[in-house]
Every structure is written in structure tokens, then in C-alpha cells.
Design brief:
The structure holds two protein chains of two kinds. By secondary structure, chain A is an alpha+beta fold. Helices cover 35% and strands 20% of the residues of chain A. Chain A contains twelve helices and 13 strands. Chain A has helices spanning 22-37, 59-67, 83-96, 137-152, 156-170, 184-189, 217-220, 252-265, 282-291, 300-305, 322-326, 330-345, and strands spanning 4-11, 46-50, 74-77, 102-110, 122-123, 126-127, 192-194, 197-198, 207-216, 228-237, 274-276, 359-366, 370-377. The longest helix of chain A has 16 residues, at 22-37. By secondary structure, chain B is mainly beta. Chain B contains no helices and ten strands. Chain B has strands at residues 3-7, 12-13, 23-28, 35-36, 55-57, 61-70, 81-87, 93-98, 113-127, 133-145. In chain B, strands 1-10-9-6-7-8 form a six-stranded mixed beta sheet, with no helix packed on it. In chain B, strands 2, 3, 4 and 5 form a four-stranded antiparallel beta sheet that branches. In chain B, a hairpin with a 5-residue loop joins strand 9 and strand 10. Chain B is globular and about 50 Å long. Classes of the chains: A alpha+beta, B mainly beta.
Amino acid sequence: MRDVYVVGVGMIKFGRYPDKDVSQMGAEAGVLALKDAGASIKDVEMLVCGNLFQANAMNAQKILQQIGQTGIPALNVSNACATGSTAFREAYIGVASGMYDATMAVGVEQMGKMGLLGGGARSGGESVEGVLGSGLMPAVFGQAGVEHMRKHGTTAEHFAKISVKNHKHSVHNPLSQYQVEVSLDDVMNARMVAYPNTLYMCCPTGDGAAAALLMSEDKLRQFTSKPIKVATSVLTSDPYTDRDLTMPDVNTLTQNAAKEAYEKAGIGPQDLSLVELHDCFATAELLHYENLGLCGAGEAGRMIDEGRTELGGDIPVNVSGGLLSKGHPLGATGVANIYEIVTQLRGQGGARQVEGAKAGLAHVIGLGSACTIHILTA
Amino acid sequence: MTHTQRAIAPMLRLPATPDEKPYLVGYRCPECNATYIGGNRVGCSKCTYVGDLPEVRLSDHGTLYVYSIVHQSAPGIPVPYVSAIVDLPEGVSVRCNLVDIEPDPQKIEFGMPVDMVTRKVRERKEKNAHGDEETIDIIAFFFRPGKN
């Protein structure tokens, strides 16, 4: 395998675009990434599109039909919330394998106001949602948080502080769906969705797109003098654990991915300048502090109390505003994480810049389950 | 018009004889004893055994592992309710509603003993094989605080 670099990134502001369509948003993000690198669609040798809700719509091809039908291989990826990051990984493998010198990943989603997501499942024609518990995401991640409370004495306030932090970060990100600060009282007193997650502790639905252009070392020289290296790309699925099939275990596959990523990259959690992780709910972020080795088991509550993951702390997490503020258009999310890390490693973060950022980790989880970790270095 | 009972999910068995209690079933790996909810299995994902997993009858009592209290749900679903994960003695967990308890974190204890109950949750009218309309009572299982 050879080294792979990100030479261009693009992202449209996450929000609501009822008048646009998926291929249009994806194409807009793709054009931004190409422009960022000073490249043309003619330089791209393979296009991977990540999209979940229209996974059968041939969106990668539709994007080419918008910006250049060059006849290159184009493929479509879906992997739950890890759809975008899996698309990025496929583009990465294309270059790392030596098969292509330049590939592009586009993540895009149009969700509208689709409400609560998840397996609000039926069983043989009978709806069981709300009768045999809840398969919807707020309850699933509520239970994951309550498990941490049970094991470590974590409180609802610890989780609420995650939301306060990420909303505070979001005001410096013009591409964030929401750019509003909220107080701890606001979060704690907001409408309860599924204990312990209140409204502000749940990510919004929305529309958006992000893209990344990847190149080999030889190819990139004509485009940039500041390439960002993809130090490692890891994808795991959920290994067997005792309750996983009843209560999705979001921890073990992240721990496995982190261990593999740190080993392969030769970079440990102590070497990271920033982390963009999958805060679909406030509870999730706190669990992942431990899963990613940013602190020890049972220490995540103290970590948020001490402000270590705030901008200015020793390991800032989700300076983009996170999914909680930036939004979570499913297929776009994983590529948007890469966008943020690349922006930070280039020193282009503006008011949310992590000073001297040298290495960043992007983490995504798709329930079902898939976990990706990418570590990028300046 | 006759009333017929039907389980909300295949994991719940409703015996035909009224003096026998409803029960849950699981499927147990003959190699490693991992137990699964839900049939149609090709093998065991824990030990990679491939072949039949015999059905096992599950206990009607267990302990509360964790929960969430759902305050916002899809239209038509009454809230708030407690969505719970219950550990059964057979080494498998089930997701259920925890009932007969206040939906308040102060009132819900981790590890508390819980017992299974069944209740009718809805009914539907269907034509039977003879073309006559009959009423199907949909029966679901729940767990509630245990006696001990």
C-alpha cells in the first residue's frame, strides 16, 4: 500500500434544501473540492458517492452527469451513518492500492424533516415500536448513556455539558446547520426526548454534502504544496458481545477500530491535536472519549467537567460544532468530518482553529454496526 | 364472533391450553451455548458454528440491565414509557417495555428483579378461512418489577 493524501475538500452548509436534489448537492460539494485543489473532474479517475436514503439512485453517476461524464468508474456506497466515511475509505483504497492516482469521495444526504430514525421495527406485520421497547435512535443512545451511568456513576449533567460545548463551538463554523450557544440550564430544561437525552442533546435531521479529493504523492505535486496525509483508514464491524443484538454495542467496535488505527498510524491518542467524533447524541460523545482512549475507563465524566475537550483544552473534540450543531445528513457526515480535520490541519479554522494542529482523528459510527476511523496528519 | 389470540412477535409463544402460561423462546448454539432471540438463524455468530440452533424456553423473570424513558416517539405511540433491556437467566437479553413503574429515573433501579406479563395491546378484524370475520387479539409481553 502506498501513501494517500487529501488535496482538496469541499462542503456546502448543512441545512434544509427542499428545492435541491441529491446529485445537485453532491455535485456542488464535488466542484468545491476540485476548486480547492485547483483540479478538474478530468483529473479524477474514480468517484465514490456515499448516500443512504437514495442508495439505489446511482448518485455517483448522476453527479458525473452534472459535472463531467468522463466515463470513469463510479460507485455508490451505503453503510448506515458511516456511509460517507466508508465512501472516503473506498476512495482511499483506490489510491493506496496503486490502482488510481486520483479519486474523489462525495457524501450527500437529503433528509428533510424526517423525524426520528431507526429500526422502529415491525415483526411479521405487527409494529412493535413502543410495545417491545424502542428501536428508535434516541432510545438506543439513551440506553447506551444509561449503561455508562450504571457502570461509572455518570450523571445526566455530564452528558448535557457535551451539548453545551458543541453548541459553543458551532458559532465559529459558518457551515454548521445551527450556530447557537446554549446554556447548561437550556439543555437540562429542554424537552426530554429519550432519557437522558433532551432535545439539544440530539442531532438534527437535515440536508448537506461534502467531498474530498485524494491523490498519490506523485500526482499531487502539480496541485498543492500542503497535502494532508491519510495516516490510516480503519473500518470495523460489530464483534460478538453479549447484548449486541438486543442493545447495539457502540463501544467495542470503536475500541477495536481505535486500537488498530493507533497501531497502524504509529500515532497514539496523546499525539492527537483534535478529534471529530460521532456525537449523534450527547451520550455517544462521552462514551467515545473512553472508546478512543482519550481518557481511561470511567474518566469521561471528569474529562468534560475539566473542559479538556473544549477548544483551548488539551484535546479539543468536535470544534466544528459536532453532529449536535453542525448537523447529521447521514451520507455527508463522514466526509464532513474529514473536511473539518483537513481545514484544521491546514490552519484554516478561523475562530475555531486548534492552534498548531498536526494530527486529527475522524470517527464515525453507523448503527448496525460499522465504525470508521481516519487519522490525518499535516 | 370469535376472538383469537396472536403473539405480537414470534419470540412469544401463546400455548393453546389456557392453564399454561405464555413464554419466550430463544435459540441456543449446541457448541458454545450462546443464545439468540429470533429464529431463521444459519449459525452462531459467537463461535461460527453452522447448523441448527435448537429452540429453548426462556425464563419469565430476569433483571433490569439498563433503560431509557421515551418521551417523544412516532405518532400514535403513547409516551412516556420505559424502554428496557432485561437480562434473562439463560444468558440472553430482551428489549421490552418496563411497566407498572413510574417513568422516573429515581424509581428505577439497575439490577432490579423483573417478571414477565402478557397483555392485549390491540386487536384487528380479519376474515378467516370460512369467510367469517373474526377478531384477533394481539398479545405482547412486558416486564414489571418482580416480587422478590
